[in-house]
Amino acid sequence: MTTETFAHLTLAFGLLGNAVSFMVFLAPLPTFYKVYKKKSTEGFQSVPYVVALFSAMLWIYYALLKANAMLLITINTVGCVIQTGYICFFLFYAPKKARIECLKLIVLMIVVGFGLIVGLTQFCAQGANRVMIVGWICLVFALCVFVAPLGVVRQVIKTKSVEYMPILLSVALTLNAVTWFFYGLLLHDFNIAIPNVLGFTFGVVQIILYFVYKNKKPVCDEKKPELEIKNIATEEQKIQENKDQEIIDVVKLSALMRSIPVVSTPNENNNNNIIVDDHLVLEPQVPNHTIEVAA
Asked: Are 192 and 29 within 8 A, CB to CB?
């Protein structure tokens, strides 16, 4: 294969990588449309967008140090613009606490982290060593980013649900990893090629898991009827206990009423009443009749 053919293939994979990466950058648009409709970020986090911005800035810096990497600069510049737009949109609609956390993360990663990388490599390294150091930093960070989907894979296996793993995004990420792998391979740049091997592997795993679990009933749905039956049985038991307690209370109250002694105050009209064993016995009242006899 001639040098010209290599150059054409490198350009082809670079352009394809730019197109696929651009589509991946646009993937969060439905999320932000929901945020716009609800005027709130709800439970969404700013971490993925700040990390993506940091990654794009890091690759731009690497491409500027390395010759013949213009396609890396173009797509990551677009990525910086898009991710900055996402972050600004998030800050506009986020509650105060989430906004403060997002700003702290920006200062930590973009200002401090990226600033230290640029400063140290500019003053402590020269020429090829600087390119190699920045390349290794990009490699390690890219590997960490590609390991992140392990949490999603674990959740899919645990819940047997692919609700939080869209197949189109998984396919796009896999295709993106393949294109950039061949681009790095043709450029003989293993800092680009090696992380995308891991990205391709995890992408294939996600696609396989999607087709394995897409028709299976989630674990939470299978346990729900059992939970409902237990709740109903518990409620019925409580109702029965309440009824039994009411009966017991009525019996106790009746017994208590029967055992209460009656205290009477003697007066002129009930002088004949008799108290026996602390209970009042009423004697019949016989009216007094006076018979007058004529003299």
From this structure: no
Angle in degrees, 0-180, between the axes of helices 190-213 and 150-159, rounded to the nearest 10: 10
Closest to 168 in 3D by CA, of 43, 26, 51:
26
Strands (E), the chain: 274-276, 279-281
Annotate 172-193 with DSSP letters as a single string. HHHHHHHHHHHHHHHTT-HHHH
- State the Cα–Cα distance between residues 45 and 22, nearest whole angstrom: 21
Spatial neighbors of 50 by CB under 8 A, at least 6 apart, are 83, 87, 102, 105, 106, 109, 110
Q: What confidence tens digit (pLDDT) does each residue in 108-155 have?
A: 999 999 999 999 999 988 888 899 999 999 988 888 777 766 777 787
* Beta strand pairing call for 279-281 and 274-276: antiparallel
Cβ atoms of 101 and 46 closer than 8 Å:
yes
pTM here is 0.68
232-270 pLDDT, tens per residue? 556 656 555 555 555 555 444 454 444 444 444 444 444
Q: If phi over 0 gives left and psi between -120 and 50 gives alpha, with beta otherwise, what is residue 288?
A: beta
